[in-house]
């Protein structure tokens, strides 16, 4: 529907984390918040206010879509929506990860990092 | 974890959160609101479960912070999107965009210009410290005495001593003196004031110092303050003029300072002096004479005092004066003090005209708005499909509405910029115009308030022009989509709205045209009115004799005799005369009571007339007919029989229309009698719009004047001899300057400059309105034709002739125009009564104006409809039938 706002704009860390959260599984809003919080040991904390600004942008850019299927009624709340990473989203997230990897490699070559870590 | 069981409590909605979320754009709320509430509820529940009180607070804090940072960026991105889209649409419809911006620019420009004047003159406080406490004090010693109520020196002293409501009462009067010591003698308008006059007004000197108490002591050295305008005009703004000495009234006068620009009232003076320096005001007789009422009084109310209280307080003082000095006041009436806030006084003449013009400008703006709303509607027809599509794709009503408003705001903003440009360029003309009504004209600027007003108008305009199409879009969007937008169910409503907007434009234009038509008719009447004198080929010269030199009647008479002799000897001069005043010369009327011999004196109806002194040939020079008896001649010298000429009005009022020649009148309650030797025709002395007043003329030789005017009837352009007359004047007295030199035609034309400008301005507004409305009708008909191409094709295919097609389109357009004219007619009948005061010689429902305006409007509408009608008649039926 709308084209990527600006493909050259780097993802903000918060957006990247949302993509990372969705890289594992399709999640609803609250689950994304929890996932990001857990994985970053509470370092990156999204709030309802910021999360939906990000979701809107990612939806507009076609990096995520809303999933049609819903869980069984007992487990559902009609207000919840479930989001899924698109192929393009996966690509963008991967590109960002690669970019970060290169940055890390560079930092390592400049001896800013002490020991090698496996990704 | 993804499809985790939702918490039971999560359905509970949080009111504070909903309020917070109101900060977000409605569309965003619509998309994500419920989900956000749900997530928040789960977070809250989790925090509650953990039993951490701080956790809940932290959650609120984080959520609020998130919303506060997201809201502006969401609004901004939506605005950017809307603006970008609007700009693309406007570029695509460049014709529409330019038309709309021009129309709105004209409407907003007219309003901005008029508002800048209203703001500076009527709304802003006076540029004086405590301007709101300043009052003009008019003493009324005669019942029903109009004009300026002046006071005498003893009365001023009493008011100062006895009033309890005033902080300071100051005096003012105006004189024309002669300033010597420059290359040529100069006649200067002089304000004679109390030493603290400018302190009361809160005016500080630009250069030098103000008056001090010592400057007003009897016998103090005479000092002068220059007005800013005179300083620039005559001294080129040279600050070293301070300290220089000039001669006035046979005394040295030292310039002590220059005043800043400020609204000078009651007169725009060249110089100011204290009362001690004025030979008349400082004479012992004047100081002692309670009846010598030559001073205008101004004062500052004490803080907290209202004008009503001040009036009551000062009137009490006046009543005490009457009790203490019964001979100085009328026995039958209590003297009163009438107070007028200075601001009201300064803007009294300007206010009605300005409010009138503001209303006219408002009407122009209304027409402009209706016009652009119509253009918008017409565009909506073409964009129906686009809008339907966007609605189908999930754009909410709010979003579409917002989109339309954004577009109309950009247009209005463009119009506002253009309007500001137009207003700025027209401001100088407008300022000159308003200066005829108020001394505050110099304060007119485009300032922050005006900019704010323009912005406000632009916003209002965008709402007015943007809402109409948005409202007309109400109804079934899906239907609009299905039917391709050209024949939707909303189509009928839309064309009704368009028709109504056209009717409104025509009706309002009609009103404006009527207003302008009445003004123009008044102006023509003023130009044509028989003023009782013949202005062609008459030169007028105003003069003020030097008081210190011409102290006796013989010296004044000698001066006028010598000057007249020289002027009459000029080959181009047919006749010449001196006179205390001449028609329309703006000098104040000099009213005098008189007795008529043999007529029962009635204290309630004492004959009163304007008084003038003229030399022989005055009536001949001005072409004023002598209806009976004779004009003054060489017989009427000081030592001879006192004689007078009255005008026809006096004859009608006091002599029952019978010839009064030979009857006698007295100007000093019967001590001396004057014989009436002639009756002159009535003359409009003050204003062309005023019916002639009772008027009595006496020979100049018997009543010489300090400020005489010279009038000369010439062959050819009177201004050709102006320079020679001045040369003769200097031959008679090298220190005697001429004042204003004008032809009587100029004087006459200048006397109606204000109504002429009002008529011009209103005419301009009305023409604008007419052009906008005509363009509006044309545009709507063009659209209608393009929508009916198919139908017209069918009609032509089955034999309709082009003439019939033209007639059909004309009928449709003219139907709207005629409804508009009828509505305008009704409104005009209802409203024109309010313009009665501006009119002269024409009734507010003048049939000629009404018929004329209706005709002009109908013809304009017809012409506007004809263009699309002709296009319709040229449609090729075969091609038209193919149009779906």
Structure description:
- The complex is a heterodimer of chains A (119) and B (884).
- Helix content of chain A is 50%, strand content 8%.
- With 119 residues, chain A is mostly helical.
- Chain A has a single domain, classed as Orthogonal Bundle (Arc Repressor Mutant, subunit A), CATH 1.10.10.
- A three-stranded antiparallel sheet of chain A has the order 1-3-2.
- Chain B has 884 residues and is α+β, with helices and mostly antiparallel strands.
- Helix content of chain B is 52%, strand content 14%.
- Chain B has 25 helices and 22 strands.
- The longest helix of chain B has 43 residues, at 350-392.
- The A-B interface holds A 1, 25-31, 33-35, 45-53, 55-56, 71, 74-77, 79-82 and B 1-6, 10-11, 28, 31-32, 34-40, 42-43, 62-70, 73-74, 393.
Annotate the secondary structure layout.
The complex is a heterodimer of chains A (119) and B (884).
Chain A: H1 13-24, E1 27-28, H2 29-39, H3 48-60, E2 64-66, E3 82-85, H4 87-109
Antiparallel strand pairs in A: 1-3, 2-3
Helix pairs in contact in A: 1-2, 1-4
Chain B: H1 15-21, H2 26-49, H3 53-92, H4 94-123, E1 134-140, H5 153-162, E2 166-180, E3 186-193, H6 197-201, E4 207-208, E5 222-226, H7 228-235, E6 245-248, E7 251-258, E8 271-274, H8 284-288, E9 296-301, H9 307-324, E10 336-341, H10 342-347, H11 350-392, H12 397-434, H13 448-472, H14 477-482, H15 489-528, E11 538-543, H16 553-568, E12 573-579, E13 591-593, E14 595-596, E15 608-614, H17 618-622, E16 626-629, E17 643-647, H18 648-654, E18 664-666, E19 674-680, E20 695-699, E21 709-714, H19 722-732, E22 738-743, H20 744-751, H21 753-787, H22 789-797, H23 802-831, H24 847-873, H25 877-882
Parallel strand pairs in B: 3-8, 5-7, 15-20, 17-19
Antiparallel strand pairs in B: 1-9, 1-10, 2-3, 2-6, 2-9, 4-7, 5-8, 6-7, 11-21, 11-22, 12-21, 13-15, 14-18, 16-19, 17-20, 18-19
Helix pairs in contact in B: 2-3, 3-12, 4-11, 4-12, 4-13, 5-9, 11-12, 11-13, 11-15, 11-21, 12-13, 15-21, 15-23, 15-24, 16-19, 21-23, 21-24, 23-24
């Amino acid at each position: 529907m709308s084209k990527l706002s600006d493909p050259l704009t780097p993802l903000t860390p918060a957006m990247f984390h949302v993509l990372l959260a969705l890289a594992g599984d399709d999640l609803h809003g609250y689950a994304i918040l929890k996932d990001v919080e857990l994985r970053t040991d509470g370092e990156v904390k999204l709030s309802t206010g910021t999360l939906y600004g990000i979701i809107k942008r990612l939806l507009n850019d076609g990096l995520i879509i809303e999933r049609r299927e819903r869980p069984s009624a007992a487990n559902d709340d009609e207000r919840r929506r479930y989001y899924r990473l698109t192929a393009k989203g996966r690509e963008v997230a991967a590109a960002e990860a690669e970019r970060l990897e290169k940055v890390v490699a560079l930092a390592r070559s400049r001896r800013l990092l002490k020991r090698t870590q496996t990704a | 974890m993804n499809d985790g069981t939702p918490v039971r409590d999560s359905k509970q909605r949080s009111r504070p959160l909903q309020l917070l979320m109101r900060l977000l754009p409605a569309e965003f709320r619509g998309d994500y609101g419920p989900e956000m509430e749900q997530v928040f509820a789960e977070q809250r529940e989790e925090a509650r479960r953990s039993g951490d009180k701080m956790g809940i607070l932290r959650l609120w804090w984080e959520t609020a912070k998130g919303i506060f940072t997201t809201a502006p960026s969401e609004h901004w991105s939506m605005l950017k999107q809307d603006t970008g889209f609007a700009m693309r649409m406007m570029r695509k419809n460049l014709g529409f965009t330019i038309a709309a911006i021009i129309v709105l620019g004209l409407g907003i420009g007219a309003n901005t210009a008029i508002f800048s004047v209203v703001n500076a003159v009527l709304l802003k406080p006076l540029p004086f410290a405590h301007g709101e406490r300043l009052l003009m004090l008019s003493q009324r010693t005669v019942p029903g005495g109009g004009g300026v109520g002046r006071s005498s020196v003893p009365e001023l002293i009493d008011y100062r001593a006895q009033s309890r409501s005033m902080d300071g009462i100051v005096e003012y009067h105006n004189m024309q003196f002669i300033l010597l010591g420059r290359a040529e003698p100069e006649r200067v308008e002089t304000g004679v004031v109390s030493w603290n006059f400018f302190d009361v007004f809160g005016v500080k000197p630009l250069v030098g110092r103000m008056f001090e108490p010592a400057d007003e002591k009897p016998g103090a050295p005479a000092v002068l303050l220059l007005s800013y305008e005179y300083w620039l005009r005559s001294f080129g703004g040279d600050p070293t003029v301070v300290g220089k000495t000039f001669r006035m009234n046979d005394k040295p006068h030292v310039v002590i300072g220059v005043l800043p620009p400020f609204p000078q009232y009651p007169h725009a003076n060249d110089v100011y002096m204290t009362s001690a320096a004025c030979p008349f005001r400082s004479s012992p007789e004047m100081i002692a004479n309670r009846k010598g009422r030559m001073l205008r009084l101004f004062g500052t109310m004490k803080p907290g005092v209202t004008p009503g209280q001040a009036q009551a307080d000062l009137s009490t003082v006046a009543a005490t004066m009457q009790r203490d000095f019964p001979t100085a006041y009328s026995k039958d009436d209590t003297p009163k003090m009438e107070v007028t806030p200075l601001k009201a006084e300064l803007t009294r003449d300007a206010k009605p005209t300005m409010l009138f013009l503001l209303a006219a400008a408002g009407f122009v703006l209304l027409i402009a708005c209706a016009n652009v709303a119509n253009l918008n509607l017409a565009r909506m027809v073409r964009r129906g499909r686009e809008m339907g599509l966007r609605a189908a794709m999930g754009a909410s009503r709010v979003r579409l509405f917002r989109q339309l408003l954004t577009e109309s705001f950009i247009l209005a903003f463009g119009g506002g910029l253009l309007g500001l440009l137009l207003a700025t360029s027209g401001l100088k003309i407008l300022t000159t115009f308003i200066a005829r009504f108020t001394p505050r004209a110099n304060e007119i600027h485009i300032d922050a308030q005006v900019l704010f007003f323009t912005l406000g108008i632009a916003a209002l305009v965008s709402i007015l022009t943007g809402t109409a199409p948005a409202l007309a879009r109400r109804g079934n969007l899906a239907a609009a989509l299905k039917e391709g937008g050209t024949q939707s169910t909303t189509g009928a409503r839309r064309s009704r709205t368009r028709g109504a907007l056209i009717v409104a434009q025509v009706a309002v234009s009609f009103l404006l045209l009527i207003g302008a038509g009445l003004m123009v008719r008044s102006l023509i009447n003023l130009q044509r009115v028989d003023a009782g004198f013949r202005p062609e080929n008459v030169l007028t010269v105003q003069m003020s004799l030097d008081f210190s030199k011409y102290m006796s009647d013989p010296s004044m008479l000698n001066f006028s005799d010598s000057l007249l002799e020289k002027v009459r000897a000029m080959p181009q001069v047919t006749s010449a005369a001196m006179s205390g005043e001449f028609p329309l010369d703006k000098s104040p009327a000099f009213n005098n009571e008189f007795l008529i011999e043999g007529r029962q004196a009635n204290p309630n109806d004492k004959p009163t007339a304007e008084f003038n002194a003229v030399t022989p040939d005055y009536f001949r020079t001005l072409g004023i007919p002598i209806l009976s008896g004779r004009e003054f001649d060489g017989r009427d010298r000081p030592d001879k029989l006192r004689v007078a000429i009255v005008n026809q009005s006096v004859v009608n009022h006091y002599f029952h229309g019978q010839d009064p020649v030979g009857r006698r009148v007295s100007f000093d309650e019967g001590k001396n009698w004057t014989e009436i030797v002639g009756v002159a025709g009535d003359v409009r002395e003050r204003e062309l719009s005023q019916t002639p007043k009772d008027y009595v003329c006496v020979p100049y030789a018997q009543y010489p004047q300090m400020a005489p005017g010279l009038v000369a009837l010439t062959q050819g352009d009177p201004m050709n001899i102006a320079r020679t007359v001045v040369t003769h004047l200097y031959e008679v007295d090298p220190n005697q300057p001429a004042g204003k030199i004008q032809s009587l035609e100029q004087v006459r034309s200048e006397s109606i400059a204000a109504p002429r400008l009002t008529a011009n301005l209103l005419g301009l507004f009305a023409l604008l309105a007419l052009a906008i409305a005509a363009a509006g009708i044309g545009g709507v008909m063009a659209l209608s034709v393009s929508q009916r191409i198919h139908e017209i094709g069918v009609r032509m295919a089955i034999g309709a002739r082009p003439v019939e097609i033209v007639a059909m389109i004309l009928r449709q357009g003219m139907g709207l125009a005629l409804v508009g004219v009828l509505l305008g007619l009704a409104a005009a009948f209802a409203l024109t009564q309010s313009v009665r005061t501006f009119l002269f010689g024409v009734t507010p429902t003048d049939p000629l104006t009404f018929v004329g305006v209706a005709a002009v409007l109908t013809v304009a509408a017809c012409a506007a409809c004809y263009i699309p009608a002709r296009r319709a008649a040229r449609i090729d039926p075969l091609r038209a039938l193919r149009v779906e």
